[in-house]
Specification:
The protein is an alpha+beta fold. The protein is about 40% helix and about 35% strand. A 4-stranded antiparallel sheet has the order 2-3-1-4, covered by helices on one side. It is globular and about 40 Å long.
């Protein structure tokens, strides 16, 4: 079974372009280089813009639960720390883990 790992992030508006560039060129390639994920998607949450920032969802599809668990054990803390160190106090995030029941 494939696993969808969703990270929803609200980043301060002035940082949006720099953050998105960093995500596309550094962070996401680092996550994908772990080898635990099949693909990813970046989405912007519509209607979520407010005085606190802009909302995005980054979605990664793990090959299976074992791959996701290995990512969590071996790499997640370091990669999350990289993001936190760079954008400390400038974002909020929450993570959701889902089983993909069917793909179209």
């Amino acid at each position: 079974m494939k696993i969808l790992y969703n990270i929803t992030i609200k980043i301060e508006s002035p940082l949006q372009e720099e953050w998105l560039t960093w995500m596309k060129n550094i962070h996401i390639p680092d996550v994908m280089a772990t080898g635990y994920f099949e693909w990813y998607k970046i989405t912007k949450i519509l209607g979520d813009d407010d005085e606190y920032g802009l909302g995005f969802a980054i979605q990664y599809v793990a090959f299976d639960m074992e791959s996701f668990n290995r990512y969590q054990t071996n790499d997640a803390k370091r990669l999350q720390q990289d993001h936190s160190d760079r954008y400390q106090g400038k974002y909020v995030a929450f993570r959701t883990l889902m089983e993909i029941v069917e793909e179209g």
